């Protein structure tokens, strides 16, 4: 029986994690829950799962992780505000089931330096797929990683045709039902950029050997190409409960958690290259990842500001990545210790807000 803390329990990842747990009471027990502001839903969940310890906000989430003993902390918080809870989870010695990719990306070596080997289990679907495929070979046998991308709701469009797209259109993800920020990031392809940095940090593969293939069906969740020319892909219908369950029970699988593919009906899986001119965020993220230091934190923080401005109707879709690029270009890297990262984030948010107010 594993004791689980679910951070961000009221969100898309959190609710699906509780569904997995509710269906497998012989495997998991919830010992702590946290949310941002949604006190009512948090209280309902605590009552349903008989949980004594709850927290609201990032600071209380840190205290929760520090005071409640758990085997696994699932970080399903959205945004880089999840950094403190990620660091606390690693310090606690629990396994960190990581959906909150932002904390790894902004924390970089800081997060990696705290993590024992195998302590971080990725929940992001692509990285879960890679982790599963990587069980089949050694690090030296890996030639490259290929992350699949759905392409988002604007796949096939030119940059100019995207100038006036609405927030509602950006939230119409073709294959996944997720929270507002990650869904918007899928529409700009910033999500795939963040995921390249996440893959580099998790699996120690250099950026030249991490590629993206657009796969609109979101059935193949990513692939590992090995040195002998063999490629292993992980495939399953798009349902986050599978990678979430692996995050909670790694290295074991939870029987029945997902519905397998149906091989008795005709289906077509397609793959195509990414259009870098319409979606420059992936190339920019690779540059940022290569530059390292405080650049990834700045990239992410500027994006978070821009995404919120877009949904408040203050800027257009194209302004999101244009703003991120302008902030990254203006950044002077600093030491990437915790203070340095937090300073760089504050600087990036202020800088982004200045640019956004003129957009
Ligand atoms: N949803 C998905 O399918 C996938 C998500 N991810 C990643 O998982 C993470 C969560 O995404 P998702 O579930 O979609 O997001 P949601 O917006 O649906 O949920 C976010 C959760 O974080 C909580 N939260 C927000 N701010 C704080 C804070 N300051 N302190 C504590 N909790 C906070 C929210 O609480 P409240 O309800 O009170 O606001 C909510 O529970 C993101 O990093 C995302 O990129 C990765 C792959 C797939
Ligand atoms: C489900 C998941 O892992 C998301 O991060 C997903 O990858 C988003 O889809 P895109 O491929 O459109 O970014
Ligand atoms: Mn993903």
UniProtKB/TrEMBL annotation:
Pfam families: DXP_redisom_C, DXP_reductoisom, DXPR_C. InterPro entries: DXP_reductoisomerase (IPR003821), DXP_reductoisomerase_C (IPR013644), DXP_reductoisomerase_N (IPR013512), DXPR_C (IPR026877), DXPR_C_sf (IPR036169), NAD(P)-bd_dom_sf (IPR036291). Residues 120-203 form the 1-deoxy-D-xylulose 5-phosphate reductoisomerase C-terminal domain. Residues 4-65 form the 1-deoxy-D-xylulose 5-phosphate reductoisomerase N-terminal domain. Keywords: Isomerase, Isoprene biosynthesis, Magnesium, Manganese, Metal-binding, NADP, Oxidoreductase. Its EC number is 1.1.1.267. The keyword Mitochondrion does not apply. Pathway: Isoprenoid biosynthesis; isopentenyl diphosphate biosynthesis via DXP pathway; isopentenyl diphosphate from 1-deoxy-D-xylulose 5-phosphate: step 1/6. Gene3D superfamilies: 1.10.1740.10, NAD(P)-binding Rossmann-like Domain. Mn(2+) binds at residues 124, 126, 195. NADPH binds at residues 10-13, 36, 38, 100, 102, 179. It catalyses: 2-C-methyl-D-erythritol 4-phosphate + NADP(+) = 1-deoxy-D-xylulose 5-phosphate + NADPH + H(+). One of its GO terms (biological process) is isopentenyl diphosphate biosynthetic process, methylerythritol 4-phosphate pathway involved in terpenoid biosynthetic process. Transmembrane segments: none annotated. Its cofactor is Mg(2+); Mn(2+). One of its GO terms (molecular function) is isomerase activity. Residues 236-350 form the DXP reductoisomerase C-terminal domain. Belongs to the DXR family. PANTHER family: 1-DEOXY-D-XYLULOSE 5-PHOSPHATE REDUCTOISOMERASE, 1-DEOXY-D-XYLULOSE 5-PHOSPHATE REDUCTOISOMERASE, CHLOROPLASTIC. Catalyzes the NADPH-dependent rearrangement and reduction of 1-deoxy-D-xylulose-5-phosphate (DXP) to 2-C-methyl-D-erythritol 4-phosphate (MEP). This is 1-deoxy-D-xylulose 5-phosphate reductoisomerase. The gene is dxr.
